[in-house]
Amino acid sequence: MPVNSRNKGNKYERDVAKEWRAFGFDTKTSRYANRELDDLKVDLVNTGIFNIQLKHVERLSPSYHEILSSMPNDNNYNLIFHKRNRKGDVVVMTKEDFYDILQMLINTDIVNVR
User: Fold this and answer.
1) Domain 5-107, what fold?
2) Is the pLDDT of residue 38 over 80?
């Protein structure tokens, strides 16, 4: 039976939301909780300082760069979670955002640079 891409993507959203809830967040899919964020390409709500777009596809189109540029330009960090069959998941963000988070980890002595 062929896999329905929409169902595959929706299941991925529910699975990742469940993972965030395991960390203690009250995470829900934006399809369920917030249509406005869903329209802004944010798939999960109640994820703290992160805007998250989820993709479960083999060939990503549009590109990471295009997806990130279409996400909200607010004080949150924009993340793309991308899952491919038998390849696992990756999380993508801008280098600027990564360095900002790294600096926070250094400033709070979570990462020791010496």
Assistant:
1) Trna Endonuclease; Chain: A, domain 1 (3.40.1350)
2) no
